[in-house]
Every structure is written in C-alpha cells, then in structure tokens.
Amino acid sequence: MTPLKTKTAFLLTPMFLLQPATLCIAQSAPLAAGPGAKASQSTTIMVIQRPGGLSELYTPASVSVVNGEDLRGDRPRVNLSEGLGSVPGLQIQNRQNYAQDLQLSVRGFGSRSTYGVSGVRIYVDGIPATMPDGQGQTSNIDLNSVDKIEVLRGPYSALYGNASGGVVNVESQTGSQPDTLEAGTYYGSYGTWRNSVKASGATGDGTRAGDVNYSVSASRFTTQGYRDHSGAQKNLGNAKLGVRLDDASTLTLMFNSLSVDANDPGGLTEDEWHDNPRQSPRGEQYDTRKSIDQTQAGLRYQRQMSDNDELSVMAYHGERHTTQYQSIPMATQLSPTQSGGVIVLERKYQGIDTRWKHEGSMGPVPVTFTGGLDYETMTERRQGFENFIEQDGAPDYGEKGDQRRNEKNRMWNLDPYLQTTWKLAPRWTLDAGLRYSTVNFDSHDYYITAGNGNDSGSARYHKLLPMGSLNYALSPGWNLYFSAGRGFETPTIDELSYRPDSLPGLNTGLKPTTSDTFELGTKKRIGNGLVTAALFQTNTDNELVVAQSLGGRTSYTNAGKTRRRGVELSLDQQFALNWQLKMAWTLLDATYRNDTCGSGQCSADEVVPAGNRLPGIARNMGYASLQWLPEQGWHAGAEIRYMSDIQANDANTAQAPAYTVTSLDTGYRFIWDRWSLDLFSRVDNLFDRRYVGSVIVNEGNGRYFEPSPGRNWGGGLNLAYRFE
Predict the structure, then answer these.
(1) Do strands 428-445 and 403-423 pair parallel, antiparallel, or not at all (unpaired)?
(2) What are φ and ψ of residue 38, in 5° steps?
(3) Alpha helices by DSSP H, 364-510
(4) Neighbours of 605 (CB within 10 A)
C-alpha cells in the first residue's frame, strides 16, 4: 500500500487489452478526455498512472471505480455488497441468503428480481455473468483477486446490450513482478469462516515475446448463518494467465470455478419479522436449499494490426448446474399445471465478441471508429420435480419426487455495434454510438399431460440502441457533460414461461422494456479528491409486472409507463497523506406514470394508481466513511450507511422501514523485509439496529422481508511473502 493511492482514467468495456507497466491500451466505448489527455482523440483507453490521478474525471458518463484494496479493506471478503456503498445510484443488499444471491439494482433497474440480478449487465474479466435473457449473478466474483470494479450508470449502458440500468465490470488482478504468495483467514459471528490463498507474478516486464504473467486465487467460505436454516458453504477459484506472443499481440486465459451449497431461509411476513427475525418456519418444514456448480473459461486475443488499427477477440464457454428445493405445499404441487417444488437446471453458455478499432481524421477533426459483433448463446435443460415423497398419505418434504416439468430452452443474442469519438475542438468532444440488439428465445416442452398442455414456443426481440454524449472541459480538472441513450431489457425465460390466460405456450405477448435516459453531469478535481454530480431522468415503457399467480405458475404482463428521476452526488477525498474520506448520496424518485392493472380485469381496489412508488427501491441512500491508512502500523476506519424506507409491493401497502447502521474497524500492519502481516478486526451494526436488509418484491404470500443481523463482529489476518 502506498501513502497516496492513485487511480486511473478509464471507460468501461467488456474487453480490455493487457499491457504492462504504467500504460495500458484498451478497446472501449468512446472516451472524452480533458485537455492534455492523449486518449481524447480516440476510443483507445490510455490508462495512465497520473500523479494524484482520478478515475472518473474524463469519462462523459456517471461512472465509479472501486479498486481492489479499498474493496477488501478490513472486511470478510465474501460479498460484493461489503465495499460498494460509496457508489451512488447502486443499491446492493445482502439478503442473508446464499441460495438467492445479492439484491442489486442500478437507478432502480433490477429491483423486481426475486433472485439473481436483472436489468444490470455484469462482466467478470470480460466474460458476461449475465445470460442472453438478461438474468445474471454475482456469486462467482472472487473478491480476493479483484483489481477493480467499475460501475457505469445510465445511457452508456446501451452499448452493452440487454440491460437498462447500467453495467458492473469486474477485473481481476494481473500478475507482475515480484512473485508474491498470500494467505488470509477471517472468522466472525454465526460461525463464519473464510480462508484464502493467492499467488501472482510474472516473467519479464510484459514487453518482450514470451513474457508471462499469472494470478491464481482460491477460497473457501462457510457459515452457520444469522437466520435459522441459512447455513452455507462456498468454494471459489479464479485464475488469469497472460502471454505476450510477439511485439504486436497478447493472449490471456481466464478460468473460474464455483461450488455453493446453501440452505434457503426464505422471506418473513411483517408479523414474523417483528416476532423473531431469525426464524425460518418454512425453511425447516420443506428443507429448502440450493446447490450450484459452475465452471467457465475464456480466451482473449489482442493484436495491433497497424499504427491505426487494432483487433480484439474474446471467446468463452461455461457450464452451470443448479438444484433448488422450494417451499411449496403438497396440495399446490398436485395441480396439473404445477411444475413441482424441485428445480433441476443445467446450463451451457458461450459467446464471442470481435472488435476492430480504427484511428484517423476527417479533415482537421480527429475521429476514431470502433465496430464489432457480439454473439452469445445459452442452452438450458430445465426439469421440475415434486419436493416430497408421500408416505402413508403424508408428505415427506425435502425429497425429490415425481417429475412435473421437462423442457429445453435456447437463447441467443446477436449484436452488431458501431461507436465513434469526434474531437471537435480542444475543449469539446462528441461521442456517439449505435447497437442493434436481437434476442431470440426457443422452448421445447417434453412434459405434456392431461391438464398440462404443450408450452413450447419461440419469441424474438429487436431494438436499435442509440446513444450520444457531448463533453465540455471547463478546465483541465473540471468537466461538464450531457448524455442521452436508450436501454433495452427483454423478459427473462422465467417471465416468458407462462401465459396469463392459462393456455399452453410461451407468453409471446410480452414486450421488452425500453427506457430513454437523459443526464446532465459534472466532475471536478479538488486537490487529491474528486467531486461528481449527476441529474438524470429515465422514462420507461412496457415495465414488467406480475399478471397473476395461480396453480403454482406466475405470469407477467407489460404494465405501461414508469419514470425514474434523481440526483447522485459523490466525494472521494484524500488528505493529510493517510486520511481518506468517501461520501455518496442518492435521491431516486421511481413511480408509475399511469394506472396499472396486471391481469387486465382488476377491480378498483386492485388497480395500482399512477404515482405509486416502484417497489424494492429506496428513495434516499446515504454513505460516509473515514479511514486512517498509513503504509504500516495502526490503521482504522468508520462508516455509516443510511437507507430510506422501501416499498415491498406495487400497491404500496407494505414497506421495510428506513435504517441507519454504523461499522468500525481497526488493525495493525507489520512489514519485515519480504514479509507483511495485517491483523484486523471489525464490528458491524454497532448500535444493534433491528432492520430489514432486503425485500422480496411482490411476494405472493406477503413474505416480503429478509432481516439483517444485529451487532456482529469478526477479525482476521493476511500474510504475504515477496520472492525478490
């Protein structure tokens, strides 16, 4: 750790070139840089270690970067939600349920997801963690080896396909000299253990043919869980190997492996939460649980074809196997249309993204064009079984019974795109781009019985996604920008599966959600800090809502129009050499713009009136942290998080109350020649506040609430050795 941390100017993209030393060249979306920044003339990213440099300053969009050291800090290093509180507009909450992943939304997009992540595009080392239908997950992100996490909010996300809210890009560390071996452990409340090991290094400096860099990490996490029936164990491995083939090209191999076994405590009603927030009545009764095994690998090739042309190709393949036991009563599962209480899902996904960049000029104006073609496909075999075996007329839950569902689904998307940057004048930069997204669904039903018809079908969606941004540099450290763009979010395969009229076949009447965003923002360097502000409005058509939930089948419909508008402010300030202050505030007003009726046959009492708040979205979020971070010796920090109340359903009749929680951490770092040892401890929810950490939006039984722990503690150590 250096006394004064430096960050890097960047623009988010799913594919990055790997270059050593202080300068990295990367293919990207257009970059509007300030005066004196070479990258302002092209879409090539010049990642330069500037003295006191600031990441977000030159990008004409709402973007935040959290580097790996800040993300890990004196934390458990288990959940992505631990270190992203300083990102405005990002609502990321720990469900205390490792069977359902984190709850993540950007500017309110993704809030309706009952599991996983939707509405937000996620990449891990250039490989999409979001499938072609828009459903993603964060469980394979290895915090132990993260180099940085980049969160892009608003119109620029249109360049990345099937998402409306934005993009979260995770980059693992690239090995460098000297070779280093690290080991760490953490122990905390509720029997929580995390053990990890990491090795990284390089031969050569990466500039000569044959130079190799590597980074390999593995970890194991176990917990008994805060709530009853919420124990989990997770094994995670991540590797990155880079080779310089010759003077003009590099090759990088990425590998990731994940195994999770987790009990599912489920949600609670409001009365249950008040009575005992740790209980899991249905988890114990039905033995609800989930197991996941995922392996993926990717290969990235970059080549400088000429002084003005550059080629980048990314290819990947992965497999994911999931088995989940749900809390569905036997009587409900006996319905002919019910798909059972056990889900067995096997997925294979792969893709290739090919990109060409050309730098040139049109008359006196420097112009850069970047064109590419992105193809992704996923094939899944989805089966359903009864979650019981009947013995003497009574169900024995938690056992896989008779088959109730059997189908094969295939999804693919094909997206050509073109983007350009025009350096109109020393202070003016214009960025523009187009992406034409095609998403296709095919489903073949193999389970056809009396009362359960053929649910086979297909659907295809197309959308042209334009964006533009105009940036004006008021000074070398102060930029003002205006941007506009269109987002596109298709229904997921789960949302397409059933029709609201109970007839067989896919719900092909569903339309994709489209959103138009307008944003005005400014960024200013203040000493060794950065202040950012953004004012935005997003108008959305065809928002998806639940149409009906009947016989174990949930169907969806397009509700109409919604509006999200708000303000995002952030401050990242370093002062007095070893002090760091971070602050963020988000105001987000997300409402229905018209009366909404899911089924089309609602009574007056069932209509969701215009002006109701969208569920799952906090109107206000606040964050502040202060840290003392010397290179060695004592270090300490404190942080405070505020979340306003969150509506749990469309009718706005249930809500999770607002809360404020505080955390403290401290530790001591020893450095002896090649060795370093960091001992630390922390306490979360210092004042033992009882609160709901997340809600299950529109849960049909009113079990909306997922409680968070009271005061809890933990501590650990990290030991490293450098082979010099």
Answers:
(1) antiparallel
(2) -55, -35
(3) 493-496
(4) 6
Can you tell me the distance from the alpha carbon of 87 to that of 152, in angstroms, rounded to the nearest whole number?
10
Contacts of 686 (CB under 8 A, 6+ apart): 661, 662, 663, 664, 711
Which of 457, 464, 454 has its CA nearest to residue 440?
A: 457
Residues 6+ apart with CB under 8 A from 274: none
Sign of CA dihedral 180, 84, 112, 704: positive
**pLDDT, position 474:** 95
Q: Tell me how far apart the alpha carbons of residues 522 and 240 are, in angstroms, rounded to a whole number.
A: 36
CB 513 within 8 A of CB 439: no
What pLDDT, on the 0 to 100 scale, is given for residue 23? Answer: 33
Which residues, including other chains, have CB under 8 Å from residue 618's CB and lie 6 or more apart?
A: 91, 586, 588, 643, 644, 645, 646
Number of neighbouring beta carbons within 10 Å of residue 651: 16
Q: What is the DSSP string of 522-575?
A: EEEEETTEEEEEEEEEEEEES-EEEEEEETTEEEEEE--EEEEEEEEEEEEEEE
378: which strand partners?
349, 411
Rounded to whole angstroms, the Cα distance separating 714 from 76 reads: 8
Query: 677 and 670 in contact (C-beta within 8 Å)?
Result: yes
- Name the residue among 482, 616, 486 with its Cα closest to residue 545: 616
Residue in 153, 146, 124, 121 with CA at minimum distance from that of residue 136? 121
Residue 171 CA to residue 405 CA, distance in Å, equals 38
**378, 347 Cβ separation under 8 angstroms:** yes
486: CB partners within 8 A, 6+ apart: 155, 158, 463, 464, 465, 466, 467, 514, 515, 516, 517
Distance CA 117, CA 415 (A): 21
* Cα 390–Cα 396–Cα 401 angle in degrees, nearest 5: 60
Taking the CA atoms of 298, 161, 305 and 22 in sequence, report the sign of the dihedral they define. negative
368, β-bridge pairs: 359, 421
Which residue ranges in the chain fall short of pLDDT 50? 1-55
- Please give the structure tokens belonging to residue 9: 């100017």
> What pLDDT does residue 148 have?
93
Classify residue 497 by its DSSP letter.
S
Instruction: Determine contact, residues 242/250, Cβ cutoff 8 Å.
Output: yes
Decide: 316 and 299 in contact? Cβ < 8 Å. yes
The predicted pLDDT at position 607 comes to 84
Distance separating alpha carbons of residues 582 and 87, to the nearest angstrom: 10
Nearest by Cα to 171 from 57, 20, 14, 5? 14
pLDDT the model gives residue 556: 82
Measured distance CA(724)–CA(721) in Å, rounded: 9
At 193, list the tokens: 């253990």
Distance (Å) of CA 688 to CA 84, 96, 301, 360:
22, 16, 51, 60
- Token pair belonging to 591: 């409402």
**Calpha distance 295→319 (Å, rounded):** 6
Residues facing 238 on adjacent strands: 217, 256
Inter-residue contact 46 to 22 (CB < 8 Å): no
Between the alpha carbon of residue 562 and those of residues 90, 542, 602, 637, the distances in Å are: 19, 8, 19, 40
